[in-house]
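BUG: 3D viewer hangs when loading the predicted structure for this chain

Environment: internal workstation, default settings.
Expected: structure renders.
Actual: progress bar stalls at 90%.

Input used:
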Amino acid sequence: MPWVADLHIHSHFSMATSKECNPKNLHRWAGLKGVSLVGSGDFTHPGWRAELRDNLVPAESGFYRLKDPGDPEISGGPEVRFVVSGELSTIYKKNGRVRKVHHLIVLPSLEAADRISSKLEELGMNIRSDGRPILGLDSHHLLELVLEACPELIFIPAHIWTPHFSVFGSNSGFDDILECYEDLTQYIFALETGLSSDPAMNWRWSALDRFTLVSNSDAHNPTNLAREANLLNGEFSYQGLKNALQDKKSAGFAGTLEFFPEEGKYHYDGHRNCEVCLKPEETIVRAGVCPVCGRKVTVGVLHRVAELADRPEGYKPEGIFPYESLVPLREIIGSAINCGSTSQKVERLYFDLLRNCGPELTILREIPLSRIAKIGGVLVAEGIRRLRVGEVSVQPGYDGAYGIISVLREDDRKALMGQAALFEPDTVVEVKQGPLLGSIMQEIATQLGALSIEPKSAPRGQRSQLSPEQLEIIHTDQPIAVVIAGPGAGKTRTLVERIAYLIRELKVNPAEITGVTFTNKAAAELKQRLAALFNGDKRINRVNLGTFHSIAWRILHENPQGIPCKLLDEFEARELIEEVLRQNRIPMTAREAALIISLVKNKYLWEAELAIPSKVVDLYQAYQESLRLYQRLDFDDVLIKAVDLWEEGPDWLGPVRSKFNYLLVDEFQDINLVQYKLVKLWARKNQRLMVIGDPNQSIYGFRGASANFFSKLVDDQDYPKAVSFHLGQNYRSSSLLVNAANTLIPLLYRQNVSASDGKEPVILQLEAVDERIAARAVVDEIGDLVGGTSMLSAHGQGGRKRDHPVNHTESYSFSDIAILYRTGKQAVALEQALMIAGLPYRVVGPTGTLEAATVRDFLAFFRYLKSPQDLFLLRTNLRQPRWGLKNKEVIEAINLLKVSSTTVPNMQLLDHLLNINMGEETLNKLRQFYGVAQYYTAQMERNAAEIIDDWILRMDPIETDELEKLKKICENYRSFDELFQSLPLAAEADIFRKGSRTNGTETITLSTIHAAKGLEFPVVFITGVEEGLIPYGTEPDPDTVNEEQRLFYVAVTRAKRRLYLVNSQFRARFGEQT
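Structure tokens produced before the viewer hung:
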């Protein structure tokens, strides 16, 4: 659900404001209204900043919360947050005219407010007499000043059409925003429409198209909060707010809640003192003169908009956001019961509705009318119905006098009252009324389902759109279920609904259910879907979800004796393998050796006949000895230890076994022999097992995985009652794409297609001379798909010839698009092209960054700082070339510490080591290392980005580009600790980073095909569709070719609407063009 933000308000330090405008009252009324984020207002006033500091504490990044909010006054309200904001008025002369322009400024912190306020005072500005100070500054100079003090600010021209005080105001504004802000206009990305205009009026002027149109209450009284407000979907933080306003193509901004513009004080033209209200055309006829006093009338917003507009009324440009026009609930109640909106009777009914139905905005927009009628009466419900469908009467405001919006007139009330004395709210649906009232109640019931009965054909919580095949699987009572589910067949949905069925209908304890996924991201998605299905019921947290490795690692940690070994991540393990290869003079790369060792652990050790070459045995044994020496486990050891533990069956394991009474395994086609053994061990006791996957998407044979475990499970003598099911309908992709993908797989598994949605699907080929030109072609195509990323491309004048059409009736956002490739190296050219074009993107599975020597050294150093007694980590760091230590010196230092430092805590190892009798040259090198270690130990409270920047500045590493990419990876973690804990158990798809200049949530996805499994996108580009990449290698064997074909099938079936096959005639490999 979108959250509501009201950014423009005032404190009691502003003139003509209520004394009630203090933090506690603003917090209270924000909650009553349903506002999640409220602007502080008046940030320049020192007294107000002090009051804010006394009452607020930091919350989400850039937001604040009330220190002691107390218990909520009503249920269903949001957790209210504050963001620092203020309105600044500028009065100055420019281009021969006096200008009076107001500006709304939103800041990330009170400290930023301090800096701006200090700068203004240094210039002699009076910021203490009024919360909304009047500054003798040019608007351009103000923007320049505040940008210098806080580049992260949000600068919004306020109520842009107000005649006397706005950038486009008829009396003192400009005809062009560039005239006002000049070269700094580029830093403005949002405009506040004000109470007297709505978005539709602003759509008439094309010059405003690039701006996000926001609306705020400009409240001078807490009760007026959210009379206009903004709806947002983005990240709930200051940066999320800024991204939502700055990037119109993101999904962050969701629209506005509006005053009826006619209710604004300056909608029509006129003279309030003379009680003359004129339409714009009447003003023109009268030459702008008041017919009563003969003086010039105040020209209103509608008139001014018409002057600057270059489009007709009703025009809707592309990329607009929706809006809703609302009337305050008190006014509707007053209109219904024929009382003033501030009367005690209205007040009592207002709070009755809030206590029973939730916040005001929820009542006005969402609560069923039947429920409102039960509390507030049928007339209030009818008033809200009329508001929702726009059946209101309007008397426009003019020259500072608010307009009047009426939802119920006197004759309406009389007609509706009829026999209202007989009406009882508790029996609203059953009471029979006269024809008019009866029709109203029927309208209410029909519109909002007040009389609908929940169907009983399906268990609670399951939606009717589940297919018969899905329902059969969900409800099966077969103890062993083997489910073949092709791409887009609703596999995840089926798993979620199966778990829900076990809990709700079979009353299974959630703690007895385990769901095994292929990635941690998939486990998080399952948990999120279950939470949504159970409306946040905390019982769902007891369901045991995770990958094989994460679940096994948690079990190992339940051992009362603890785990004596630490877990290596993939890159630490590879460093250890490099050491083994050097010591044993084995002619092999670390990558090749890692794959061989992994195959041994996951496959060969578990086969009946141990047929492993002696050289491989030597490598494996040497590596395992190193692991024992340094008290380490690698990724594959986790499952081996879990199998050993389950077979030994210690007493403490008893309670743990109950977690597997109901076992569900996803992506079963990609398990290996040790995982199959673990599945059998986990499921042995109660024989309740469901596995689901697609043999045609088995793509990890190089790790020992095989789709043959499907048939092995069905034929397994331990599971004689195994029953197979099939989900063969593809609900994701268009028929053209499904039929194309079907040609890649055996006839037995080919998918059915769902009914056409009428949109024409597309499969296209893009061919270029080389990979750089191919990357540019992909980026150009994306620009066309999103409607143009520059002025020229938006109008089809980008200069690129095309030989295929783009259907402009379909619109795509950046997040709808994925670029897939076979190997990580292919991403380099694609990233460069995207950066040059300024397009936002993210890279899934950026293992190349984590493999870079500079990044490995950096991470190893900070791992050591977290565990300074760990001699393995110390040895790894001392071997880094930057310290200049010879291998002999490192070994000597480590051996000395092994013998004599077991009781020395933490960084005191330094003193201990330096007191040992070693050569002075060696000691100087160690002093340098420990000096750097002590410095960064003191920096560990800083965020990762700051530490990395400091490291680049002080340590002058090579490959700084890779460290910059590491910063983007670290953005996904709260701390280095969380990163270090995640890496050892992370799958490729669990790690991602955004592009160097990408901050929003709307991003193009770059991914290897392996990491993209399980994802879907309306538009997919598969790059490198050429010999040597797909299939990969120069002379692949038949098994590899078959797996490569399945991998290509995975890539094709990620697409929903459009598929592009991209190839290069020439590609650089191993430094040569091929």
